[in-house]
């Protein structure tokens, strides 16, 4: 059983439900959540599991990080942008994309006051399903709490879209959350490794699946899983 929703989660669900576009209009539910500062997902820092993967476990993935540096990285639904900035700090030019103009303002302001902020990063307002990717596609993407934020009916489109915007042999890292329980009425909607596999199976091969040991503050073990997929070569 998933835990009972917090008042903040209840408010987000209300905002998304009241958005005629199901949360997918630029000034709809998500933007309103950012305006009201109802952002319980926002850790204000890099996800520890992502730090663990890039800095301690990357060898197990079997793809050289250097081989991805000639392309750009994408973090869709980037929110405050800490994970995007973390990728940029690894020497990959990064785009943090969010549907909500308020989230993008927050991300830019946060970066501006970050000591030694990377300069190879841009935060852009845009819809993941419609924005224009760089010519040739991204070499790397990171997805955390974006898959669980969209309606499950959009999951196949989500997978197809990553297949369009990531270049052949490019890498998609998914920090799967929340994989516990059977949650009704999201966001966040419950996810599972199988749901990622099903959405991505057409264009990607899974090359890594492991439980992270470094978790977000207060997070119980068993709610996250780190998954890495490689775009099939054409
Ligand atoms: C649950 S929040 C997660 C934010 C961030 N990944 C984090 O972990 O802090 C989901 C984010 O996805 C954004 N979003 C929702 N639909 C989107 C879309 N179609 N394109 C881009 N961003 C979207 C929302 O505005 C929101 O900032």
UniProtKB/TrEMBL annotation:
Domain of life, source organism: Eukaryota
Keywords: Methyltransferase, Phosphoprotein, S-adenosyl-L-methionine, Transferase
GO molecular function: S-adenosylmethionine-dependent methyltransferase activity
PROSITE patterns: SAM_MT_TPMT
UniProt GO BP: methylation
CDD domains on file: AdoMet_MTases (cd02440)
PANTHER family hit by this protein: PTHR32183, THIOL METHYLTRANSFERASE 2-RELATED
UniProt-recorded name of the protein: Uncharacterized protein
Provenance organism: Rhodotorula taiwanensis
